[in-house]
Amino acid sequence: MPGSPRKKTIAAGPKKAAAGPRAKKVKTESSELDRLQAIIVGSLDDDKAENIVSMDLAGKAMFCDRMVIATGLADRQITAMAQHLSEKLKEAGLKRVQIEGAGGSDWVLIDAGDIVVHLFKPEARTMYALEKMWGQDLDEAV
Q1: Which H helix or E strand runs over 51?
Q2: Is the separation of the CB atoms in 102 and 83 below 8 Å?
Q3: Which phi and psi angles does 138 have, rounded to 5°?
Q4: How far is 72 from 123, CA to CA, in rounded Å?
Q5: In the 3-class helix/strand/coil scheme, how is 21-70 assigned residue by residue?
Q6: Burial 72-90 (b: 16+ CB within 10 A, else e)
Q7: Rg of the chain taking only CA atoms, in angstroms
Q8: CA-to-CA distance for 32 and 47, rounded, in angstroms?
Q9: Of 89, 98, 101, 111, the residue nearest 43 (C-alpha)
Q10: End-to-end distance of the chain based on CA atoms, in angstroms?
């Protein structure tokens, strides 16, 4: 089948959980996801992020259940948003928060387990258009 690995994964759809003792990936409860999402959106709002969008990707993506996208106007603002968000998530009990692209990038990704946060400069957000990629257009394609 031609296409990139990502396209093949999307076309294949969500995988069923494998049986057995090694297949114990624990999904975060919906109420816990709601709590973490509220912390994320609140932190971004406190840091003056613009155009904050939350998307539910349950059943659409294998790497997360929710995605939050926001815009910052400058490198310093985006770096500060990522740092503050990481601190608040750790205070909320999330043990492993990974940040990619911090320190002068147009796009910073924060991996908070079942929630992935993207912080963009306006031009990069327009160019990558994640809302279009993961939004309702994906539902219509399926």
Answers
A1: strand 50-56
A2: yes
A3: -65, -40
A4: 10
A5: CCCCCCCCCHHHHHHHHHHHHHHHHHCCCEEEEEEECCCCCCCCCEEEEE
A6: beeeebbbebbeebbebbe
A7: 16
A8: 23
A9: 89
A10: 18
Is domain 29-141 given the CATH code 3.40.605.10 in the classification? no
Q: In the 8-state DSSP scheme, what is residue 74?
A: S
Cα–Cα distance measured from residue 22 to residue 37, given in angstroms and rounded to the nearest whole number: 29
Tell me the two tokens of residue 103: 């320190």
Looking at residue 50, its amino acid is E
pLDDT in tens, 46-80: 999 999 999 887 777 778 788 999 999 998 999 99
pTM of structure:
0.72
Strand order in the sheet with 66-71: 50-56, 66-71, 115-120, 107-112, 98-100
